[in-house]
Amino acid sequence: MTGENGQISIWYFIGCLLTIYGVLITGSGIYELFSPPAHPVVLAEFHAAVWWGLLMLAGGLAYIHFFRPSKGNK
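Given the sequence above, the corresponding structure tokens read:
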């Protein structure tokens, strides 16, 4: 996971970004559930922002888990 020089894997940072984006997109989707827009999009009943945000959040957390820098991995 960490390189020979103690470097952190780029996949860990990608996991952090996916997690942040997942939280933001899920939050906006949940906000739209309780406060629907005046002119919703055609397929608004599927709540794509909630599902896509949760998918990104799960993927980001998986990347953080599998590529986390730990002292035991050398």
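The chain has one domain: 10-66. Try to locate this feature in the token string yourself.
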